[in-house]
From TrEMBL:
SUPFAM superfamilies: S-adenosyl-L-methionine-dependent methyltransferases. It catalyses: a 2'-deoxycytidine in DNA + S-adenosyl-L-methionine = a 5-methyl-2'-deoxycytidine in DNA + S-adenosyl-L-homocysteine + H(+). This is Cytosine-specific methyltransferase. Belongs to the class I-like SAM-binding methyltransferase superfamily. C5-methyltransferase family.
Length: 421
């Protein structure tokens, strides 16, 4: 029984309304990870810090009360009831496998693998805005910087699949064998270090298509050598898959690397074939009139036209692009020309009064940027996925994300192999 005078329901929301996302405090992440894993035995990895977090909140809210460990324990258990009911994308009730989500972004891997009845038991993402989006949709705060040993120490044992959309960095391997030690100082080294220690049954890595040719192919060769020789995984040749082949109208090519621990006896793997290449831009556009803020100003539109004309005069193909409704979008990317390469025609605007400070007037040609929700759809995120950050952050997050349907199709093949199908 929680101590009389302490109304725990009064601070229920405050435990989840974590706004600061202090990179040096892993307790909020431990708290949410504990709640997610209290039924599977993994909660022991998170309980100590979860209790510390709850106690700190209670002490802040009830400064005149003696908050004992027993009170903190009872309060922690209180939050387990009906926890999944408030989460837009809860874990499956009867999961068939476990996975961890590294460099998680906003949860594209998680969404895909949960759809396949997978249970996420650890998440890491350092960007505080991505953490906010992740928390809003999965009810979990990712741990921070995975390069820190203290973060790695939270990773539990006995999970099945390691997922990582790790950033590509240059490896300094000139004149060397390109093994495990040669990847130090890169983010792949941290992934390899976790694989070496935890020995998951399978690994699923995603990266930009350019990884194949990075440093004349040496970077990919080093990665494969580490996975195959140093870590003893069966790794078939990586494959580049295009999101437009998996039910979203986006020309997005990414390299996928899959591996299986050799003692499992898995020695063949087929990446998924095209599932659906029929979708066009029409399938993801907003159904109602969108805000005037997404329409280009006359001044900016003229700047884009001049920019493209200069490049065309030099024989280059750079510049803005308007995607027809029956066409396929270019890859959404973070910043730069990401939005200007995916403009659309939309003549439904009825109010041309600007709601933001612009130079010139709102253009009358019906040319606008896609909305963050449209970018979400291009990446295969359902409309129930909450966008809780600014437009600028949302574009960044979806541009950096994985295409969920392509991830899910590949993960399905991985799980089928692990289950002997």
């Amino acid at each position: 029984m929680i101590k009389e005078g302490i109304k725990i329901e009064n601070i229920d929301g405050q435990l989840f309304e974590i706004r600061t996302f202090d990179p040096d405090d892993s307790r909020p992440a431990s708290f949410t990870h504990y709640l997610h894993n209290h039924k599977n035995g993994i909660s022991k990895f998170y309980k100590k810090d979860a209790l510390s977090y709850v106690k700190s909140v209670l002490e802040r809210e009830f400064p005149n009360e003696d908050i004992t460990d027993k009170v903190s324990e009872e309060a922690l258990q209180y939050f387990l009831f009906d926890f999944n009911n408030s989460i837009p994308f809860p874990a499956p009730l009867k999961p068939k496998f476990r996975f961890i989500d590294l460099f998680a972004g906003i949860g594209g891997f998680r969404l895909a693998l949960q759809n396949l009845k997978g249970k996420c038991v650890f998440t890491s993402e350092w960007d505080k805005y991505s953490q906010q989006t992740y928390k809003a949709n999965f009810g979990e705060i990712p741990f921070g910087d995975i390069t820190k040993s203290e973060t790695k120490n939270y990773i539990p044992d006995d999970f099945d699949v390691l997922c990582a959309g790790f950033p590509c960095q240059a490896f300094s391997i000139a004149g060397r064998r390109g093994g495990f030690e040669d990847t130090r100082g890169t983010l792949f080294f941290d992934v390899a270090e976790i694989i070496k220690k935890k020995q998951p049954k399978a690994i699923f890595l995603e990266n930009v298509k350019g990884l194949r040719n990075h440093d004349k192919g040496k970077t990919l060769a080093t990665i494969l050598n580490v996975l195959r020789e140093d870590l003893n995984y069966y790794v078939p040749d990586p494959q580049v898959l295009n999101a437009k082949e998996f039910g979203v109208p986006q020309n997005r090519e990414r390299i996928f690397i899959v591996g299986f621990r050799k003692d499992l006896g898995i020695n063949d793997f087929q990446y998924p074939e095209s599932i659906d290449n029929t979708k066009t831009l029409e399938n993801i556009l907003e159904e109602v009139e969108v805000s005037v803020k997404y329409y280009l100003s006359t001044t900016y539109l003229q700047t884009l036209k001049n920019h493209r004309a200069r490049h065309e005069s030099k024989g280059n193909g750079f510049g803005y692009e308007i995607i027809p409704n029956d066409g396929t979008a270019n890859a959404v990317v973070c910043g730069g020309m990401g939005r200007e390469r995916n403009l659309v025609y939309d003549d439904r605007l009825t109010n041309f009064i600007p709601v933001t400070k612009i130079s010139g007037k709102v253009n009358r040609e019906g040319i606008r940027k896609m909305t963050p929700r449209e970018w979400a759809r291009l990446q295969g995120f359902p409309d129930e996925f909450k966008i809780v950050v600014s437009d600028a952050q949302a574009y960044k997050q979806f541009g950096n994300s994985v295409a969920v349907p392509a991830i899910q199709a590949t993960a399905k093949k991985i799980i089928e192999k692990l289950q002997g199908k």
